[in-house]
Amino acid sequence: MRALLWVVTLFGIAVGIAVLAQAQQGIVQFVFPSVRVELAFSLFVLLLLLFGIVFGTLVRWVRAALSLPRRVSAHRQTVAERRARSELDAALRAYFENRWSRAERHAAKAIDNASTGVLAQIVAARAAQAQRQYARAEDYLDRATGASGDERWMGQLARAEMLLQRKRSAEAMPLLQNLRKRAPTHSGALRLEIQAQLNAGRWRDVLRLADQAAKHGALDPASLAQYRETATVGALSEGADAAT
To answer: How far apart are the C-alpha atoms of 147 and 167, rounded to whole Å?
Structure first.
């Protein structure tokens, strides 16, 4: 399309010069100390137009050459992001198919890309933990929790959940309490903290957190009722044991 516009433009210019040449028989003189150059006005206009076209083309070429490193870098970054997202997609698909080793392998290939890094680290950590490779899982989580903003939050939440899965409620508790301070109504964090308090047998804290969740509408009524029932039964049993 651009080439067609150039052809039409040049054709129009040629027609204009031809008409001008017939209507204008003047000359243009360039006088130098020892030389005088005379050109027909139509030829001068044609040369001026040709100079403009050549100059504009050279400017475009120079700009293209100067921007080439930036465009190459942007292209490489785009290709790298596309590959990383493809690896992450494969990792998620393998993870939900319970193919832990394959999920970890694909996720590890997407870790070094900024657009997929934290999510890939969390997927790799979960896959490693599913294989009982706890040291590798911790390494992935250390990188994920070293991020900033929402990505750091995501890494801390994943670490807390994975600690609970390994029955390490005492280590998960500080993380969950910190997350609750930042987002008091986050249903996932509240659910995990209630589970941690249940595991620790802190029935009063379970009831307090259940009331907080009910106040903010963070959890569904059925889950809240179950948590309250478990905490109440636990508290009564604990009180009966203390009485005897």
So the answer is: 26
